[in-house]
Design a protein that fits this description.
Low-confidence stretches: none
Structural class: alpha/beta
Order of helices and strands: EEEHEEEHHHEHEHEE
Shape: globular
Strand order of the largest sheet: 6-7-8-3-9-10
Bound molecules: adenosine-5'-diphosphate
Number of strands: 10
Strand content: 25-35%
């Protein structure tokens, strides 16, 4: 499992004063275990597309299917991380990660085990009790990534997750993300406006153009996948 099917999806936002077609007729099939990079300039509808996969925004027309079932509301089987880590300032790193478990009513012992495994995997060991403001931007994004992965979602959605970080931190985290993808086998959809990042990480790159947001090109990435 882990597949996503997007079928001729459009999304138009209507407010009192304007109508914006954010996504206009996008079709895409994401196979289980793929790493799809969605590349495009600011405002081309990338975030909106992710939100439709997550069931946070309803398509105006067209359908999104997740693991074979039509998406009609917020999805449990998805992990989501954004450009801003959005951590609770008064909770330590581990407790921020475990928030996911509390929200979803996961078994406490199982969640604790998974949290420790992710903390280990992302190099957060020793920082379990650190408050968000005591952590660097890179470390905060690692916490957000762990939080997104705690319930072992078959699909991980990432919206410019490292966009606010400096180039070196970003590169390190991308390497880690690649390793996490390989080790967990989760399907990843990454939104970015960095061509290098899209190609480095993706098994496929979907290029979107703005006004209105459309997929204009699909590029298979045929690079050696081993980066160690
Ligand atoms: P990207 O992620 O590629 O920067 P977005 O999906 O955030 O693009 O936005 C695409 C377009 O839709 C933009 O013009 C944006 O202003 C508009 N838009 C996004 N969300 C809303 C909303 N909730 N209400 C109105 N317009 C929106
Ligand atoms: P990168 O993401 O490139 O590793 P970071 O700035 O996130 O860069 O962290 C670099 C290293 O600095 C981390 O691996 C960690 O060991 C250490 N570090 C980060 N934040 C802190 C902190 N708040 N206190 C002490 N050491 C830290």
């Amino acid at each position: 499992a882990g597949g996503v099917e997007i079928e001729d999806v459009t999304c138009t936002f209507t407010t009192k004063h304007s109508r914006t077609t954010a996504v206009d007729g996008v079709s895409m099939r994401i196979e289980p275990g793929e790493f799809v990079s969605i590349l495009g300039p600011s405002g081309c509808g990338k975030s909106t597309l992710l939100k439709m996969i997550a069931g946070l925004v309803r398509p105006t027309t067209g359908t999104v299917r997740l693991l074979g079932a039509e998406v009609r509301g917020p999805q449990r089987r998805i992990g989501f991380a954004f450009q801003r880590a959005a951590l609770l300032e008064w909770r330590g790193a581990r407790k921020n990660i475990l928030l996911q478990a509390e929200m979803r009513g996961m078994d406490k012992a199982a969640a604790a085990r998974k949290a420790d495994e992710l903390i280990e995997m992302t190099g957060l060991k020793g920082f379990e009790d650190a408050l968000p403001h005591e952590l660097s931007g890179g470390m905060q994004q690692r916490v957000a990534l762990c939080r997104a992965l705690l319930h072992e979602p078959p699909v991980l959605l990432l919206d410019e997750p490292f966009g606010a970080l400096d180039a070196l931190t970003r590169e390190n985290l991308n390497t880690e993300l690649h390793r996490i993808w390989r080790e967990t086998g989760t399907t990843v959809v990454l939104v970015t406006h960095s061509i290098a990042e899209a190609i480095y990480l993706g098994t496929r790159v979907e290029v979107m153009s703005p006004r209105p947001g459309r997929v204009v090109e699909t590029l298979p990435v045929d690079l050696p996948r081993e980066r160690e």
